Amino acid sequence: MGGAIARLESRGSWIRRRGPAEVQKQNLATSRSRPSRAAMAPHLARAPRPTPASSSAAAAATSVAAELLASASRLPARRFLQLHAHLLRTGLLALSPGTAGSAFLSLAAASLPSPRALAVLHHHLTPASLPDTFRCNAILGALSDPHDALRFLRRMRALGRRGNAFSLAILLKPCRTLAHARQLHANVVAEGHLRDALLATSLMRCYATCGEGEAARNLFYEMPVRDTIAWNVLISCYMRNRRTKDALKLFQEMRGRENEAEPDDVTCILLLQACTSLGALDFGEQVWEYAKEHGYAGELKVRNSLIAMYSRCGCVEKAYQVFCDTPRKSVVTWSALISGLAANGFGKDAISAFEEMIRSDVAPDAQTFTGVLSACSHSGLVDEGFRFLDMMRYDYRLMPNVCHYGCIVDLMGRAGLLEEAYELVTKEMRVPPDATIWRTLLGACRVHGKVDLGERVISHLIELKAQQAGDYVLLLNTYAAVGDWMKVAEVRKLMKEKGIQTTPGCTTVELNGEVHEFVADDDAHPRKVEIYEKLNEINMHLRIAGYVPNVSSELHDLDSEGKGSALAYHSEKLAIAFALLVTPQHRPIRLAKNLRVCVDCHNFTKVFSGIYSRLVIVRDRTRFHHFQGGQCSCNDYW
Q1: I need a labelling partner for 347 at 20 to 30 A (CA). Which of 191, 246, 465, 575 fits?
Q2: Mean local confidence (pLDDT), 532-539
Q3: Nearest to residue 8, comparing CAs of 76, 78, 92?
Q4: What is the pLDDT of residue 484?
């Protein structure tokens, strides 16, 4: 039972002593066993050098080598190098460059790091040892560096092996650079592979990864055949590049008569996620109706996405109804409900759902604890928050990450424990703080007017090289809250010197599946005259009721009258005026904003909800605000 390894290592002396008949007999006796990869390396170092032998004996030796190489799919790098050295010493690769050589090249690509593998491949690759297309594709897939894979493709083509469409598809999977994508795109077009849907969609994904959404779109419309997968890739590409409204438009285009591809369950999931991002409730319900009509309503991932969509649109009741109607609830289902309740300010309900989840024998994961800690944060439940953090660490052996600590910092900030939160971040956290945690603490400094601590927090953001325009705005608001306008001017000057520009505030309203966008002092909407007239009317009624603009929210160097005038036409107020024009009295007004709601707009919406008896649901960058009867669900902390 010496096996193939023993035969290979002693072949040099064994060939001399025996003839062809004995070689064949010995091969037959040992063909029942295969070599152990673990046992291979210790014998290779002791292998003797070959001596001249008969052609039959040499053929038998190369057959053994080929069998051995073909039997091993991957070796540790050190053992492969030992095998390589042995094959060079014994000359077995030279005896059979075709069979053994191609198997050796495949093993090299699978066993060595990409740069070293490429060096071995280039050294041994000859027209005689060039593997077939199948093995060449396997080698391309084994090379982890896309640039090395591209070099191997050029080398094999120079030697006469063109490859096929699958060869290019393999190279597209690890594509990370735009230059790489364009080079492969040129190959696809030149070789006539554009009709290959798999290859074309892989190229679209590559463009999307590189942030070239327009190139992906152009390629999509160049494809002669567009299947459902191609449509889904384009939708996900739009979402990746923040073209969410364009992603929604594809749903209607996809269902047009001229298109043979029908949306599937993946399409529904992607579109529901897009609706979640935009707060497009009406459109999301259209997608859900389609899912029910086409048999996708029972898919758990579709239902989970629907729960998240309803929650992120402020429809907690509908989210809960879908949850209750879901027969088999996964941890994702529970987490979606808990996170939705938390984001909408229903902290105690979220905790109750978490406790019910535990009773149902569904183990929470890290995302579940993010949801329940967020519930404690949004509802100011300090003791419960620390209890759940301990439960996470000690009962479920889960290590808290920066998201969990961020919830705790936000919770402590709400309770006014800012110095304690700073100590937690700088001394007690077991993971390095990221920019989000520092921004959470900076927001708490703004609420409580802690100028000194706010300056320290900004210094940490600068150390991380993660400061953004929004961070300076928070610091500006902190100075403005305590009336330090000199500091406001200094920060504004610093921002100007560094070329830091703030992100324009944008508020969206959905009407009949169409999303309307507003910015401050907007004059682009076709109904702008009606909107401004309605907003002036609203302002008049609110001032009679006692509303006074909070001029500290306006950070430009203006007098009080100028500040009040500048605040009058913020994007949220324009959106509210438009919604009042187009939505019936019984229907909630739903807004989504890309930034944190400013103090003046928050006060404005509270008074508006009481005077006009309307429920206004606003989703800003951090949470939901449910305005009703002159009150807000956030209790004026956000």
Answers
A1: 575
A2: 94
A3: 92
A4: 76
